Amino acid sequence: MRILIIEDEKKVAAFIKRGLEQESYAVDVVEDGVEGQHYAEVNEYDAIILDIMLPKKSGLEVLKELKANGIKAPIILLTARDTVEDRVKGLNIGADDYLTKPFAFEELLARLRVLMRRGSYGAPMLKFADLSLDPATRKAKRGNTEVELTVKEYALLEYLLRNPNRVLTRTLIAEHVWDQTFDSETNVVDVYINHLRSKIDTKDFTKRLIHTVRGVGYVMKEE
What is the pTM assigned to this prediction? Predict the structure, then answer.
């Protein structure tokens, strides 16, 4: 899944980005409100972490315009302010949650997970055919066999499982599993698809689940 961080404090942004990447998220970081709003509107994010005090345009202004423009991604506001008035104002504009600095990363991660479960993500356990993935424990199983995954393999499998029977282009996959710095000229998507296939589509299983759509991308479906 892909997260956007709009935060001008470099240490805070780096702290959040590092933690989220260790949890298999793809993360983009933007340092001002104007560019942050642009990123949020031209890319598809699963969640946005938005600081209130930003250069060029405040986080509350960005929030208001994103909601007016129909952006559906859940938004968590970050701020050093800790007054009831500030919290109420942000929530009334459309923020989904509010976190006051300083905060523990585990709290931010827990709130992100709660927000995404409330949204379009459905039940925590992801299942398709005899394949399952538990985001809480980060364990995958094919039938009764546990599958060991690297960080990127996990992120890729999670994206496929959240979009069963949907043809996903290589660009879509790259945008959700990797960040803005991804080199579109590489074959890394195909390489990681092959890694996944070697673990969940082996000869031990009668049905293949990951299928190639020639010239387009990949789809998770039953044969």
Answer: 0.68
